[in-house]
Design a protein that fits this description.
The chain is mainly α. The protein contains 20 helices and four strands.
Length: 552
């Protein structure tokens, strides 16, 4: 093992402009591992929190979106503030690693409690508690994430070395994103559904009489709603017939769905506990891998002046626009994905398998985009990846029966291959580009902005970046949530009763957001990036001018 892990090597905070030192493999791995907390906490929130609010806690979609809006507006505001504080901090541990280490424990604890909001009570109490917990969690997360990102910019100034470092970070991001996509639903589904004894007795009698099939209990665990693909029209007719004849109790369907919701109200807090505890560990990997220099003098400006100078830089503004469109769209897709699988495809039980497959493909595709970037440059790689990713998303508009139709079954495995799987392959390749390339292009834009403004405050740059894309993303998700409520979406009741079906207008809205609005937004980012002009040669010239001006 590299000796730098036992005794952290000094990090080249002010690396020679044209001859930046190479990082060891272990340093790259440990830095990449640090992103696991960001990736897992963000992925679980993006994929499941809105769904948890509406289909488990019973919040109306607009109120659920309002929680995310307020939380993410705070998230956007505190990013540049934390960057500013981190830039100006001084300690024997450096200006980044101290914040990263101190934030780890409260970050994990507050994350646990986000998923433990009581379902009972008024919407107002649930909304206020959710906002408070989200703000606390996000504050501690920001004190890790912004210094962590700024640290990555300071580790090396080499054009291709930075791409390699970001690739390692995104590899961990995608792999842990895979875990946080697949494992939460495995945990939720592992919780036993406790049906009332009277319901079980009635079902047993109905099975013995031939009224209901032998697999009815397995179907019931998925809920007796139209979203459950196993709950066919034939089975629905049998259940209604049983209720009408008295063989099944009058409140049979609501009783079953209430029990299913009760199990989810145990499962999701368990998800928060397991993952929240893991988030305490990962921030320490990059902390031990590097040692920052503490004797470097830097030019600083007052907070508002710094933000104004940074936002006046045309190159940086282009990057902000590109970054916002990419990640705001990804945020909307992830927030709507559970609804798309449950209510449009009727494949909620297959969500973890299919979404997990997408992340597996993305992990293997990362080296492809690193090679594309090396052969051409980062701008070309960004444009190609964005068009692939956005273009294939239009296929989500296809009719559900086309997407889910089985093409063939793999002999010996019984695994059914449908049209979804080629889409998973292509979306995974595009997702890898969306993860790696926008982040890889950021350090050169920071260097260019530093040259034009004279401000050497990486925390401020990353804070400004996060502010713009998080604020816009928050508004985008609120609008998407409002659209869902406007379309007539029915949330679960406080007592846990799940609606047996969603209106066609709500299902259509989910389909349009996923298959039309999202791809149009993400493809439009190409027009924002078209005038970005920093390639490998341009970056070398920027570093040369910085070296001459600053004497590095």
């Amino acid at each position: 093992m590299d000796e730098s892990l036992g005794r952290p090597v000094e990090m080249p905070t002010e690396a020679p402009a044209l001859g930046a030192p190479r990082l060891s493999l272990w340093q790259k791995i440990f830095y990449g591992a640090g992103d696991s907390t960001n990736s897992m906490s963000g992925t679980i929130i993006d994929l499941f929190l809105l769904f948890y609010f509406t289909d488990v806690l019973g919040l109306k979609p607009f109120l659920a979106g309002l929680v995310l809006l307020i939380g993410r507006i705070w998230d956007a505001v505190n990013d540049p503030l934390v960057g500013y504080i981190s830039d100006r901090s001084k300690s024997r541990f450096g200006r980044r690693r101290l914040f990263m280490a101190l934030s780890a424990v409260p970050l994990g604890i507050t994350y646990i409690f986000i998923w433990r909001i009581p379902a009972e009570g008024s919407d107002v109490s649930k909304v206020l508690l959710a906002i408070l917990l989200y703000i606390l969690y996000d504050t501690f997360n920001t004190f890790f994430a912004v210094p962590f990102q700024a640290l990555g910019n300071e580790i090396s100034q080499n054009y291709d070395e930075r791409t390699s470092l970001v690739a390692w970070r995104m590899l961990f991001s995608i792999l842990t994103g895979l875990i946080s996509t697949v494992v939460p639903m495995m945990i939720v589904n592992a919780v036993q559904v406790d049906f009332a004894p009277a319901v079980l007795q009635a079902v047993d009698n109905a099975v013995k009489s031939g009224l209901l099939p032998q697999n009815i209990l397995d179907v019931m665990r998925g809920g007796l709603t139209s979203a459950n693909g196993s709950y066919t029209q034939e089975l629905l007719d049998k259940v209604k017939s049983g209720i009408a004849s008295g063989a099944l109790p009058a409140g049979f369907i609501d009783s079953v769905n209430t029990a299913v919701t009760a199990a989810k109200r145990i499962g999701y807090p368990l998800v928060g506990l397991i993952f929240g505890l893991s988030f305490i560990v990962f921030p320490f990997f990059p902390v031990v891998a590097f040692r920052e220099k503490t004797d470097v003098e830097r030019k600083h400006e007052p907070f508002l002046k710094s933000m104004g100078l940074i936002l006046r830089d045309a190159t940086f503004r282009r990057l902000l626009g590109f970054y916002f469109l990419i990640w705001a769209t990804i945020g909307i897709i992830m927030a709507y994905m559970m609804y798309y699988f449950k209510y449009y495809l009727h494949m909620e039980s297959s969500f973890d398998l299919i979404a997990g497959g997408m992340f597996v493909v993305a992990a293997f595709a990362i080296p492809i985009w690193v090679k594309v970037s090396e052969k051409f440059d980062k701008k070309v790689a960004n444009i190609i990846g964005t068009l692939i990713f956005g273009g294939i998303l239009f296929a989500l508009l296809l009719p559900a029966n086309v997407l889910t139709a089985v093409w063939f079954t793999i002999p010996g495995l019984g695994f059914q291959v449908s049209a979804l799987w080629p889409l998973v392959l292509i979306i995974g390749i595009g997702l890898a580009a969306a993860h790696v390339m926008p982040n890889a292009i950021m350090p050169e834009a920071v260097d260019a902005c530093r040259l034009s403004t004279g401000i050497h405050s990486e925390g401020a740059y990353y804070g400004a970046l996060n502010f713009c894309f998080k604020a816009g993303r928050a508004v985008a998700i609120l609008l998407a949530s409002a659209a869902l409520q406007w379309s007539g979406y029915i949330e679960v009741s406080n007592t846990g009763v799940t609606p047996q079906s969603q209106p066609g207008s709500a299902v259509l809205m989910i389909r349009l957001i996923m298959g039309l609005v999202a791809p149009l937004l993400i493809c439009s980012s190409v027009f924002v990036l078209r005038k970005y002009k920093i390639g490998r040669k341009e970056h070398q010239e920027i570093l040369r001018q910085l070296a001459e001006r600053d004497g590095e």
